[in-house]
Request: fold
Amino acid sequence: MNIQTIKIDLVQKLLAVKSEVVLKKINQILDKEVIVAYTVDGKSLTQEQYNKNLREAEKEIESGDFISQEELEKIVAN
Reply:
């Protein structure tokens, strides 16, 4: 099955679903896969990956693993 066939099959199944609970679960699964950002290298990030990256960045900042704007400006100037 190609991707278009799979999509059509899923749409048909979704239209037949009568349970709001099932639809909400499907929606939650799909929300986890939505691209919300891109890295500077162009890699796509889901909401989950984006949040993970934010938590890692916050840990680095808390541990002092960063450079200030003034330091960056000096580096760029050289």
